[in-house]
Amino acid sequence: MSIDHHAAARLGAALLLVSAVFLGAACGGSEDPESASSAGTKVTTTEFEFSEEVLTLASGDTLELVNDGTVEHDITIEEADMMVHVAPGETASATLNIEPGDYIFYCSIPGHREAGMEGTLTIE
Ligand SMILES: [Cu+2]
User: Fold this and answer.
1) Domain span at residue 16?
2) If you measure from the C-alpha of residue 42 to the centroid of ligand 1, how many angstroms do you get, rounded to a whole number?
3) How far is the CA of 78 from the centre of ligand 1 (A)?
């Protein structure tokens, strides 16, 4: 009888493992399971521009910043006291926990804003 018991225990462990793998696969499709129900946008930076210069989002949305350039960039939203910095080849993201309104965003690396890295953000 003890052999059957061990077999049952092993089967249970195997099932748990399979469940864990399935759960892992289900979560793997989304970079952040927490954000599955929240919206957001992705902005790509290069020298010297943002892929999106007019953004309309909601408070609580996720802003993802991808740096496809060869130098560092950031998105600075001065009025909201917020900055997302991203190194070359990297991706960074932040939740926009800011009040509804109109904002200006720009890259704060010296010279970049002047080169055209500026846009507007509306939080609805
Ligand atoms: Cu920049």
Assistant:
1) 1-30
2) 16
3) 15
